[in-house]
Amino acid sequence: MRGLWGGASAAAAFSIVLLLLGCAEPAIEAKRESPLVIPLRAANAHRWSAARERSLALRRNTMHERLVLHAMHEADDQGLARKISWSVGERLSTGPKVFTSRRTVATSELDGDITALGMFFAEVKLGGQVFHVQVDTGSATLAVPVDRCSVCKQGDRRYRTENRDTFVSCSDSSKCQSKGFCSQSMCGACSASGGCCSRYNKEHCFFQLKYADGAGASGSLIHDAFELGSGAVKAHVVFAGIFEDSSDFERENVDGIMGLSPANTACHPSCFPSVLSSVIEQNSGVENTLALCFTPRSGVLSLGGVPKSMITEEPTWFAYSSSLYYDVSMSSTMYVGNEAVQMTVGKTIVDSGTTLLVVPPSLFSKLQVIFESNYCDVLGMCGSGDHWFLPGGCFIADGFPLSSLPPLKFELLGKQNMQLVLEPEIYMLEYIVENEKYLCFGIQEMNFMNEIILGNTVMLKYATIYDRSAQRVGFAKAAPACGL
Fold first, then answer.
1. What is the pTM of this model?
2. How far apart are CA 121 and CA 138, in angstroms?
3. To 5 degrees, how large is the angle CA 108–CA 428–CA 316?
């Protein structure tokens, strides 16, 4: 998923509130083009720009995408960057053969920032051209802008289409299918085989991405050579070439998105193989497993297994049932310190494309009551003015009593249960502005069917392993700096 600081919700108000020695300072508004913030008059609303709001939260919301795909039934949904190394060796002897055989494992560094950018991205090549793409386990689509896009972000990287015969033909029934969802109100035309032809050129196959936060992109499907990092992983893939996108689709130094969900097919409405399924199919030495680990300003992605250097313990495994996203089961009881809190849990989704830990409003309200009842001595915790629980509340870190705050504990349910323990050093995110350090509450509420989204806040402590062959997700404490 991509979208807001949080997970997968419609655009939520996002503010940053600075509290200094108990006195409220003027609100500040951050510009997406720069990591610096500009002080505003205190009378102004405590809001960040909508662009910053989206980049620091769910970053791109695929909730709409998920609902559409459920309706389609057949659809399985929709830096790795600069340094990549290969190691052939014995993997962790945990679980089935995927971690015991001697196979090739590719590890690659990621760039990004959990607060200033709100995402982590990889460097890939398409047709030999370099792109930076967000790493997102909540979607299946690889999408980047093309040179024919007149409204895309200025200065971004564009796929050059000149003198290239790489567009997917609308008449190619093997690559351009819409599963009966071709509509001339959306598509430029419908082919004889039911393909959705592009509004930009009816000979091409069309795609359209829409997100619940209002962001989106559309264009034509392209097939070309794909390389990960230095080219250690190569495949021929179908990807979305963006002809038109919303003003907030692209981020600073991030051109597009690379979906790594369980889906083998992405449908928007044209259906095509996901980039990950194509990579695995065309690289027999790489098993169908990936692992992710994040630090506040970097990360590691591994294909084919888990590097021993990435984690400090054996993973605990949990089955996922969805073909669209990685969902796990969570107990209806969590703990704030030693105080039990009952919650109504819908789906719990593990999503690298979500910045924060996202919880239902009912749970968020209970957390607020407990914190305000027991920790009023903490700066900004209580009072009628600016406080922690405003969206994106951030506070001067100097003298902030982190040690007085409680750990938050969530229990995952499986053959072997596991308690995810988030210390205040984890859920209070560091944000540096003009050499001043702030701490920001790394939890956000979202009102959608009581879903909980385990985003990057959780992944700062726990590496996540996605064993797609066995349909399971593993959690293990990450090594310092992810073992880099």
1. 0.81
2. 14
3. 50
